[in-house]
Amino acid sequence: MAGMKIKPKTGGQLLVDALEVHGADRVFCVPGESYLAVLDALHDADVPVTVCRQEGGAAMMAETHGKLTGRPGICMVTRGPGATNAAAGVHVAAQDSTPMILFIGQIERGMREREAFQEVDYRQMFGGMAKWVAEIDHADRVPEFISRAYHAATSGRPGPVVLALPEDMLVEVAAVPQPAPWSQIETQPGLNVMADLQKRLWAASRPIAILGGSRWSEEAVAAFTRFAERFELPVACSFRRQMLFDNLHPNYAGDVGIAINPKLADRIRNSDLVLLVGGRLSEMPSQSYSLLKIPEPDQPLVHVHPDAEELGRVYRPSLAIHASPTAFCKAAEGLQPPRELKSAGVAAKAHADYLEWSGTRPQTPGHLQMAGVMDWIEASLPDDTIFTNGAGNYATWLHRFHRFRKYATQAAPTSGSMGYGLPAAVAAKLAFPDRTVVCFAGDGCVQMTMQEFGTACQEGAAIMLLVIDNGLFGTIRMHQEKIYPGRVSATNLVNPDFAMLARSYGAHAETIETTEDFGPAFERAQRSGKPALLHLILDPEAITPSASLSQIRSAAEAR
């Protein structure tokens, strides 16, 4: 109210007030003495705080929160080692275009440039990774910086923002008002470009859409589905973005990721119109930049992206549409197909190819068949189940054989970060406590962040952690056998009894050695109401769905 005197507050209190103003849902942190004033202010705040075990896990939880909600995930860590650990999550947020704000405690202002205890120049450290890196030098500028951080993290191509907090600034007192809450800034497509797109769709006989990136919503997914139906448009989803289109919809063509369906790859190469919405078609989905030529694709390319700097950055589009996916999908509702589509029947054929490709359940060596595990999951779990994973060959089973049906059901790193799945599952369960959350994790992957299972237990986050254990760094071993057959180096693992480890946290845990044991064990774990771990013992020979370890080695030796 005008004329009302503003109460002086510390920098730490102003920061927490700003988080409340902007609607922060939760803070993920590892505590440190460098930002005790913020922790003290959080004591009286309405923002829940999740105490994590390691800063990388905390940052990955914040990234997952941003990925699934569209609102910046908040992470707080201490200076020096805390910041370097958190860099893993910042990298995921950067490559996955996820809104996130990382707060780092910092040395006192008067100690700079002396290499004080845990001193780091965060502008240099994160400058090439984050959208904006800054240090708040004065308490009276805290509201300004937090407001800018929210807008920077969410505008254009979303990404991480890093703010350093000098310890003495956080106890400095200032009387300053808070700005209005952050709101999403949309970039709307022009009528002229939408009319141009409609003409191109009318003329195309072999079109295909590829959905990716961020800035989506449940409403945008539904709007794009209606648009695709009207134009009988085949729709593929980019690497680890399969939740953007119902995989059982008759227009779904499959995922454009690692080990792509060859028929889908040919469909993209031979297309006479590629509509890329939200994504960048980077190395993994582009098959090492081979699907489209650079900089001038052979296929007419319509690229829709919320960041103007991404348009023409790698591929020169025939038509560039500077718009967020949400705004574009709303505008696409107004496009109408001609009376007779040249592309009639193309979507149905593409979907049939997808079902054939993903419906084949290969048999692999060993008593535990991942194909059988996937069959049980597909038949038993609700459509809104959230699946998370990190990096490794084990993830192929989820990506190829699970049918993602709804938005916000997938949290997986396009950056290929190991260790992501477990902290992601914790964050997903805290954001959506009423939904089933299942994490796929390899034995090597899970041990990158296994300590965050303790976070799940402390929070009572009843996640379902599937540890798929073959005693290997499986993906690296696969490549090793392809290039240096028989020369095994640094890819074997001696693992703990994961079920016993989980039980030591007070969780439910079982060891699974046969396919038949999986379903009943999963049901018992669910009935426990606790965080749960199922330790799946997989034959090392079952290295991929399509080839065994011995087959890969033999093929390499025969070359």
Plain-language structure description:
- The protein is an alpha/beta fold.
- It folds into three domains: 166 residues, 3-Layer(aba) Sandwich (Rossmann fold), CATH 3.40.50.970; 165 residues, Rossmann fold, CATH 3.40.50; 199 residues, Rossmann fold, CATH 3.40.50.970.
- It is 38% helix and 16% strand.
- It is built from 21 helices and 20 strands.
- The strands form four sheets. Strands 3-2-4-5-7-6 form a six-stranded parallel beta sheet, sandwiched between helices. Strands 11-10-9-12-13-14 form a six-stranded parallel beta sheet, sandwiched between helices.
- Strand 4, helix 4 and strand 5 form a beta-alpha-beta unit.
- The protein is globular.
- The mean pLDDT is 96.
Please outline what is shown here.
Helix content is 38%, strand content 16%. The chain has 21 helices and 20 strands.
| Straight-line N-to-C gap | 78 Å
Report the CATH C-level class of the largest domain. Alpha Beta
Strand order of the largest sheet: 3-2-4-5-7-6
Number of helical regions: 21
Overall mean pLDDT stands at 96
Instruction: Give me the CATH superfamily of the largest domain.
Output: Thiamin diphosphate (ThDP)-binding fold, Pyr/PP domains
Stretches with pLDDT under 50, minimum 5 residues: none
What is the architecture of the largest domain at the second tier of CATH? Answer: 3-Layer(aba) Sandwich
Percent of residues in β-strands = 15-25%
Secondary structural class: alpha/beta
Please give the share of residues in helix.
25-40%
Shape, per Cα inertia axes: globular
Number of strands: 20
Counted up, domains total 3
